[in-house]
Structure formats: structure tokens, C-alpha cells
Design a protein that fits this description.
The complex is a heterodimer of chains A (318) and B (539). Chain A is built from 13 helices and no strands. The C terminus of chain A is likely disordered. The radius of gyration of chain A is 24 Å and the shape is flat. Chain A is mainly α. Chain B has a 6-stranded mixed sheet, with helices on both faces. The longest helix of chain B is centred in the middle third of the chain and has 18 residues. Among the domains of chain B are: 155 residues, Rossmann fold; 173 residues, Rossmann fold (3-Layer(aba) Sandwich), CATH 3.40.50. Chain B is globular. The chains are: A mainly alpha (318), B alpha/beta (539). Chains A and B meet through helix 9 and helix 10 of A and helix 3 and helix 6 of B.
């Protein structure tokens, strides 16, 4: 176990380094001039004092050769220092730390909702003996996947907030303000989970051990929950690891639609302003989230299926 | 049939009809079967694949696969008419009145639940125990079916148990509620003969003690002969013969039963081919000396799959390697085929040291040494036409022009007694026996010296098995082939081999002529294997 974790941590460090490096290469080697952006506050054609320009360039270390810039930033990043924002001047780290709880709350609620909705739909579709009901339930996920998040958000706002006045339309205080954005963010993920789990359950249902359980006289719900669900869960677990990325990406849209503060809004603003240090910090944050979630998923596999040992997970992963 | 017993039969099936619907077709799998099992009686339901025997057994408990429907007939279990009962109501019968021992122990237990839980569930489903008493009772049941250290086993997962142990667990599940009837559906298919014997002996004893009646579904007349008092023979969805075991086996009335008995290798011992002349002056075709093959296991351990094996195969003869799963017989075959290289020891083929062959020489060797695998469903590319499958080795070695190759394919198909029309068909359209003929035609296409036959008939029904063995015997005489025949089935080996080698744990424990090994085994393991062959009592 100790050796396994050590290897996984080494892998995680490598992934983070790669994410940092690729982001650096893309952001700094692209034809974009951060200093010009900083000085461009007055709109196109503002006069720029060459002295001021040189001073700024030196302060951000942009006059150094690329590899020195890279190594300096990497060393800073390793200490958790991503520099200061070009547009606000605030440290990147404190900007992210401030925005993170809001988004974690939103994404976490959305993930739980997605699991409940998705698994519920798949289990109900497998349990029912009425063909029309099964068809109806199985038609929902493709619908959920194909509807864009911003549209769902706007529709919910229109109906629940404006017409019925049940829940607040915007803001980020209180549980009531969390409901609509969380649902909006959860729906596409719930749809994918429902699709994968329903398919997996259907395959599991034809396994011989299901026949053994039926021959024992176990009830249909007992077979579904006690035998089929756990065997069908592995693909869903794999999916959750991938889905967390979608939730982070989806938060950009949802936080904009519902005017919530958070990582999504921060990302949107930073990209819009070409605030390179902030974008760089956000890329590394996304990589950290990904690595942590997938490590957690890998550690859960053996708990769900005793045939999967940690060593084998690693062999499959590498 | 008149029963003198006053109590009602535990199973009474009358005029049962079952069909499968799928892809616009309706297949009538069971066409009017009437069957009766009296209390405490053991009845064997025998038939080949597609005869409807398993469908009958499953229909009785309402456990047909999707697409299967009962079209007519009545089913009484323990005097109760359960015809047309919905699933919810049948639940009270399943497990409680009639237990089922399913076919394949390796896939019939839930891989993610502990063994003890799965046994306990059978009791809890019928309210015969609560959580705590069920756990204790399941350990007792595992003990009764002969699992060593049952308390530990109960806490293990199915993959930590051997196939034989898993089948014992499934028997414990079927017997948990002390049902009046146990339906055993090919309960030991896929298990080694010695394991099969032990498991079935235990099963017989337990059902006997409890006075449970047994409907024993099997394709193996030998097993039926050993275990059942009455034998019912099914073919194409109907019962063709039903009577006391001794009568069905001794004086069968139906032609099909006679053919089935004639084809069952465990019930006959006739050799298919006159023994090869032993005075051949030529040197042996294959000489193996002290072969060793090791495999690396996780955690730095090593498995010696082949451990110092030596043998010779004379030209034109059949050398059979017999053993149970894990004995190293298939690895030995792969070494001879040079699909893998030995860690130590030498192999000579026609005087050449195989270990020294490199590059083109290995390729030339391939033409003289061909393989036929166990599973004709997996060894033929389903997308190629049969003629392309057979022509593949010819093309690979650039033998002849296109027209010549076509002529050779026709000749080969004729040689393995396949109709010329087969050439343009694809493997999935063919039966198992036909596919194995295609595989044999492909193997002999380049006129090899040695055929390595790895369990060539184990996946086939007995009557088809007999035909393929006949074909192989004929080809051996006509083409002067030498066979290395790998099998777990001693009865089959007896029919075809000249020299027999018995393998166990990677070692060749005994080698001798077929007669000597079968009539006067020197090693105790050989004796144990022979004793485990089903159907000995009726031979």
C-alpha cells in the first residue's frame, strides 16, 4: 500500500508538472504581449511611455530568456506562488483561494445530485417490467446530454425564479441560491451516468450469477441492489473521475448564467483579459483536482470489486 | 409410467412447450415434454446441445432467459400447480421447494459478495433465518458440502476459491432450504474428472441423506449412468426414451439412444485405429529431453509449469498427454510447437534441434508442424470464407498458383468430408463439428508431419466428437501423420493413442502404451484419474 501510494504520488507530480509546462508553453510562447495588455487600459492607441514599458517588463521578468522565465515560474509555482494578476495586481493564489469554496460547494452538490439522479434513472429503468416506462426512462439521458447547459439554466431561471418566484435567480448566499445552479450543472453529468449505468446494468442482468440469485428466490429489488448494482458500478466509477473535469468546465457557464462568484467566473474573466498568471494558476488547479479525484477513484475500485487489487489498477493505468 | 408410491411426484411436467423468439424467428426448443420425478428419485435428463434439456429444467422454475416463453403444458412442483405463476409468486417456490445447481461454477457466483453472504441469502430470502443465524447456518452448510475450513471460506470471495470449491458453494445454496427437488444443470461441466467425481459423490450423499429428488441435466451418458436411477433422453425438444438406467443403457429402444451410447467415449473403449506398427526402424520425429518452463508470478514467485519432461514420439503414431487443468500439458504442446521456448532442456524435431533454429528455419518448421485448437468457435476468423481460412497457410507459404490453391482447398474440404458448398460459407454459419473439420483441413493443408491437437474434441457434443475422432484416425492412416494429442479426457485418449503420458504439476508421472496405462497403471495418480472416469460401472 505504501509503495503503491508513493508511485501514485510520483505520477501525480509528473502530471502536474506536465500540465504546468504545457500551459506555460502555450501561454508564453503565443504572440501575446502581457505588458501591452497591462498598459492597454486606456483603449486602443493610448500612448505608452517606453520607460514605463521597460520597467514593467523587468518587474515581471519578461526580459529574461524563456528558459530562465520558465524555471523561475516553475520554482515559484512549486511553492504555491503563481505571481500576481496582471489586471488586478492581487496575488493569484489568494484570488483562487477566495473563489474556490463557492465552486467546490456548487460542483460538489452537482456531483451528488448527478449521482442520485443518474443512478436513480438507471435503476428504475432496469427494475420496471413495463416496457413503455423503461423506454421512457431510457429516453431521458440522451435528451439530457443533448441539451446545452446555458439553455437549461435560462429555462430554469425563467420558470422557477421569474414566473413562479420559488427560488432566487442569482447570488451566492444560502442553500436556496445553490439549488438552481446545482441542478443545471448536474443534469448533463446525470444523463451520462444514467446512460452508462443502464447499459452496464443490462449487461450484468444477463450474467449467470443473477440467475443463481433468482433461483434462490431473491426478490427483484434484492437482486438489483444486492447483486447487479455493485457489479455494474465500475464503469460509472471510472466515469466520475472523468466527469469532474466537465463539472469544472460547466461551472464557467453556470456561474455566468446565475451570476455567482467562483472559479468559473474567475476563469472567464482571466481568459477574457488575457491575465496569463491567473490562467496559469487555474490550469494547475484543474490538474490538481483531476489528479486527486482520479487517485480517490482508483483507491475505491478495490472496495467495490475485490478482484481488483491496487497493483492491477496501476498496471492498467500505466 | 405407474408409480406405486402414494405421495405425489415432486415434479410433474405435462406436455410442456417452450419457444424462443428473437430477430423475427421463433424456435421451438421444447415440443411437448412430459416428465415425472418421484420423491427421492434421481432422474437424469440426457441430451446433446440444442436438445432442449436445459430449457426444460429452467422453464420448470420460470427461469427462462429473455425471449423464452412457455407456450403450453402444466408444471406441478410438490403437488402444487405452478403453471403460469408470475415471477413474484414463483419466488416462494424457488430455493424453498426446488433448488437449482447451475451450470458453470466459475461465473455463477456474484464476484463482489462474500461466499458466506451468498449462502446466507438463500435462507434469508425465505425468512428461514435472520442475519445472525443465517451467517452461522451458512458456515454449517459449507461444512456439510465438504469445504475445508468453512468459517474462513465464508469470508472469502468466489475468485479466491477453486472451481470445485465454488461448485460446492453452489450446491450448499441449492440445498440450504432443504428443498424436495434439486435441479442440477450440467453441474460439473468444466471441472476436472477427479474434482467432478468428488463433488458429485458429495452431492449424491447430501441429497440422499435429505431424501431430496434430483433432476440431473447432463450431456454425459457416463455421468447419467453413474448417478441416476432413471434416464430420460431428449432430442430436438422431445423425449425419445425414458426408463430405468440399466434398461436405457443395456437395451436401448430408440435408435438415437443407441447412437449416443456408441458415441460416448466413457462407455466404450474400442480403439478407432489398429495399433501402429512398432517395428519402425526410423528415428523418432520428436524427442524432448528434460524440458523446463517457468512463468513469473506477481510478488517475485515463479511457477514451474513444465518440470523436467522427457518423451519421444515415433513417426505415424499418436502420443497423448493427459492431465487436469494446470498440469502443464498445454504448455508442453506450446513448447513443441515452438510458440514458446523452454527455460532448460532440448527439443528435437526430425533430427533438428529446435532451440537452435532461427528466422527462416523457424518459418520452414511451421509448415511441417500444425496446430488444431480446442475451441473451433474462436480459432477461425468469422469474417473469412471457409475457402480463405483453409487457403491461408497455402498463401502464407506461397504454395502454387491461385488456381492450384483453389483446387487444393476443394481437395482438402473433401478430405475432411465437408460438402463443396461449404467453401463459400463463413464459420459462424457452420456447426461446431463442421468448424473443427475446417480447422483440421487448414492444419493439414501444407502436408505437415506433426499435428498438435490441443483438446480437439472437448468443445463438441459426444456424437460429433466421435465423428471428429474417426476423421482424425482416418487422416492419420491416409497421410501418415504423427499426432501429439492433448486431452483431459482419458476416455477419448484411450480411443486414439498409442503412447500415453500422464502429467501432474508439470511432471510426467507415467508414460506407457495405452493398454499398459489403462489396464495396469503404475502411478497412483493415474489410477485415481481412471477411477474418476464417469460411467465405469456400466462399461
Amino acid at each position: 500500500m505504501g509503495r503503491y501510494l508513493a508511485r501514485r504520488l510520483a505520477q501525480a507530480v509528473f502530471v502536474l508538472w506536465a500540465a504546468f509546462t504545457v500551459a506555460f508553453a502555450l501561454l508564453y510562447l503565443l504572440p501575446s504581449d502581457p505588458v501591452a495588455i497591462m498598459l492597454d487600459s486606456g483603449g486602443e492607441g493610448t500612448f505608452v511611455d517606453p520607460e514605463q514599458r521597460a520597467e514593467l517588463t523587468a518587474r515581471y521578468g519578461l526580459d529574461e530568456p524563456v528558459h530562465v522565465q520558465y524555471l523561475t515560474m516553475l520554482a515559484d509555482a512549486a511553492r504555491g506562488d503563481f505571481g500576481v494578476s496582471i489586471s488586478t495586481g492581487a496575488p493569484v493564489r489568494s484570488m483562487i483561494v477566495e473563489a474556490l469554496p463557492e465552486t467546490l460547494e456548487l460542483a460538489g452538490t452537482a456531483l451528488v445530485l448527478a449521482l442520485v439522479l443518474g443512478a436513480g434513472t438507471a435503476l428504475a429503468a432496469t427494475y420496471t417490467r413495463r416496457p413503455w416506462l423503461r423506454q421512457l426512462l431510457l429516453a431521458l439521458p440522451p435528451l439530457g446530454v443533448s441539451v446545452p447547459t446555458f439553455w437549461t439554466g435560462l429555462l430554469l431561471l425563467q420558470l422557477v425564479s421569474f414566473r413562479w418566484g420559488l427560488l432566487p435567480a442569482m447570488g451566492d448566499d444560502g442553500v436556496r441560491a445553490l439549488v438552481l445552479p446545482a441542478i443545471t450543472l448536474a443534469l448533463p453529468t446525470a444523463a451520462v451516468i444514467a446512460q452508462v449505468l443502464a447499459k452496464s446494468l443490462a449487461l450484468t442482468w444477463s450474467e449467470p450469477y443473477i440467475g443463481t440469485a433468482r433461483a434462490k428466490g431473491v426478490s427483484r429489488s434484492g437482486i438489483l441492489l444486492g447483486h447487479a448494482a455493485r457489479n455494474a458500478a465500475i464503469p460509472v466509477l471510472t466515469l466520475v473521475g472523468v466527469t469532474v473535469g466537465n463539472l469544472v468546465a460547466g461551472s464557467v457557464i453556470v456561474e455566468t448564467v446565475f451570476s455567482r462568484a467562483g472559479i468559473g467566473r474567475l476563469t472567464q474573466a482571466a481568459v477574457g483579459a488575457q491575465d496569463i498568471p491567473v490562467v496559469q494558476g487555474l490550469v494547475v488547479l484543474a490538474a490538481v483536482i483531476f489528479v486527486v479525484v482520479n487517485l480517490a477513484v482508483d483507491l475505491v475500485y478495490p472496495l467495490v470489486d475485490p478482484r481488483i487489487t491496487r497493483a492491477r489498477t496501476l498496471a492498467v493505468a500505466s | 409410467m405407474v408409480s406405486l408410491d402414494a405421495s405425489p411426484p415432486v415434479l410433474d411436467v405435462r406436455d410442456l412447450r417452450v419457444s424462443y423468439r428473437g430477430r423475427g424467428r421463433v424456435v421451438e426448443a421444447v415440443r411437448g415434454v412430459s416428465l415425472r420425478v418421484d420423491p427421492g428419485e434421481v432422474v437424469a435428463l440426457v441430451g446433446e446441445s440444442g436438445s432442449g434439456k436445459s430449457t426444460t429444467a429452467h422453464a420448470v422454475l420460470g427461469l427462462l432467459p429473455p425471449g423464452g416463453t412457455v407456450d403450453g403444458g402444466r408444471v406441478h412442483i410438490a403437488g402444487q400447480d405452478v403453471t403460469g405463476w408470475p415471477d413474484r409468486r414463483l419466488r416462494a417456490v424457488r430455493g424453498l421447494r426446488a433448488g437449482l445447481v447451475p451450470q458453470d461454477p466459475t461465473v455463477s457466483l456474484n464476484p463482489v459478495r462474500r461466499v458466506g453472504h451468498q449462502v446466507a441469502e438463500a435462507l434469508r430470502a425465505h425468512g428461514l433465518a435472520d442475519r445472525r443465524t443465517a451467517a452461522a447456518r451458512s458456515v454449517e452448510l459449507l461444512d456439510e458440502v465438504g469445504l475445508p475450513d468453512p468459517a474462513t471460506r465464508a469470508r472469502q470471495y468466489p475468485h479466491e476459491l477453486s472451481g470445485g470449491m465454488r461448485q460446492r458453494v453452489l450446491i450448499a445454496i441449492a440445498l440450504a432450504c432443504r428443498p424436495d427437488l434439486v435441479i442440477a444443470d450440467e453441474p460439473t461441466s468444466g471441472l476436472d474428472v477427479t474434482v467432478q467425481k468428488h463433488v458429485l459423490d458429495q452431492f449424491d450423499r447430501l441429497t440422499g441423506e435429505r431424501g431430496a429428488a434430483v433432476l440431473f441435466v447432463t450431456h454425459d451418458l457416463g455421468v447419467a449412468a453413474d448417478r441416476a436411477r432413471r434416464i430420460v433422453v431428449m432430442r430436438h425438444g422431445v423425449i425419445v426414451e425414458d426408463g430405468p438406467a440399466a434398461q436405457v443403457l443395456g437395451t436401448p429402444r430408440h435408435d438415437y439412444t443407441r447412437r449416443l451410447i456408441a458415441a460416448a467415449p466413457s462407455l466404450t473403449s474400442a480403439r478407432l485405429r489398429p495399433r501402429a506398427a512398432h517395428a519402425t526402424p526410423s528415428p523418432p520425429l520428436v524427442v524432448a529431453r528434460d524440458l523446463v518452463k517457468e512463468f513469473r508470478l506477481p510478488a517475485g514467485r515463479r511457477l514451474r509449469a513444465v518440470d523436467g519432461v522427457s518423451f519421444e514420439i515415433a513417426r505415424g503414431t499418436t502420443f497423448a498427454l493427459v492431465g487436469e487443468s494446470g498440469s502443464g500439458k498445454s504448455t508442453t504442446a506450446r513448447l513443441v510447437a515452438r510458440l514458446t521456448t523452454p527455460g532448460a532442456g532440448t527439443l528435437e524435431f526430425d533430427g533438428q534441434d529446435l532451440g537452435r533454429l532461427r528466422g527462416p528455419a523457424v518459418r520452414r518448421l511451421r509448415a511441417r508442424l500444425q496446430l488444431v485448437y480446442q475451441n473451433p468457435y474462436g480459432s477461425l476468423d468469422p469474417r473469412l470464407a471457409v475457402e480463405d481460412v483453409v487457403a491461408e497457410p497455402l498463401t502464407a507459404f506461397g504454395a502454387g498458383s491461385r488456381a492450384e490453391r483453389r483446387a487444393r482447398v476443394a481437395e482438402l474440404l473433401d478430405l475432411v468430408a465437408l460438402p463443396a458448398g461449404t467453401a463459400r460459407r463463413r464459420p459462424p454459419e457452420l456447426s461446431g463439428g463442421q468448424r473443427q473439420r475446417v480447422a483440421i483441413a487448414r492444419a493439414v493443408a501444407l502436408r505437415p508431419d506433426l499435428l498438435i491437437l490441443d483438446e480437439p474434441v472437448s468443445a463438441l457434443d459426444v456424437s460429433v466428437q466421435a465423428q471428429i475422432l474417426q476423421l482424425l484416425a482416418g487422416l492419420q492412416s491416409d497421410l501418415g501423420l504423427t499426432y501429439l494429442f492433448i486431452s483431459h479426457d482419458l476416455a477419448v485418449v484411450r480411443q486414439v493413442s498409442d503412447i500415453v503420458g500422464v502429467m501432474r504439476h508439470g511432471r510426467l508421472v507415467e508414460t506407457g502404451t495405452a493398454d499398459q496405462v489403462f489396464t495396469a497403471p503404475r502411478h497412483e495418480y493415474t489410477a485415481e484419474l481412471l477411477d474418476a472416469i464417469p460411467g465405469r460401472t456400466h462399461r
